[in-house]
Specification:
By secondary structure, the chain is mainly alpha-helical. It is built from seven helices and two strands.
Amino acid sequence: RKATGTIEYYPWEVISALLNSISDPKMPAEEAMVLYLLLHHGFFLWELQTVRIPSQCRPLTLGAEPPESLEDTLLLELCQRELSRNKQFVGRSGEMLRMEPADEPWLRDLVGRFIRERNQKLRDPNYPYLFVGVKKSSRGGPVAPRYIRTLVESATARITGRVCTVNMLGKCSKVLYAE
């Protein structure tokens, strides 16, 4: 017999605690940013890996200020996804994403803290991806899926006392905003 399909999601208490922690200035910026993109925008894992900073918001040289700050523009660039035999869903590729709610002061603070931390790890000013891994790949591509999963699992375990997965949090976000 085939089991009946059920929608699995985390309880509201878990989601609420995670949403509240995003705006906390003591929260590590990289963890807060990945939770923000998951819970406020419902990003998929591959979107988290490949989301880019617009070219005008990237520093021209290491240690230099970019022409425009990401805190002011609040825009992210979604990569064009290549279709293959196993990947038949294009998603929101090739467009600009406006970070919302733009009028919230905690969002600009989070983006500013994140960019400062990101720039400290950055080895190449032309690296376009939002998340910078500790061990950069030799081909200069995006971070590995394991890196994003580890970020989410460590953040959720510390905040809620339980490990939450990227896929389930994305589903919860989509259910939350669909209602």
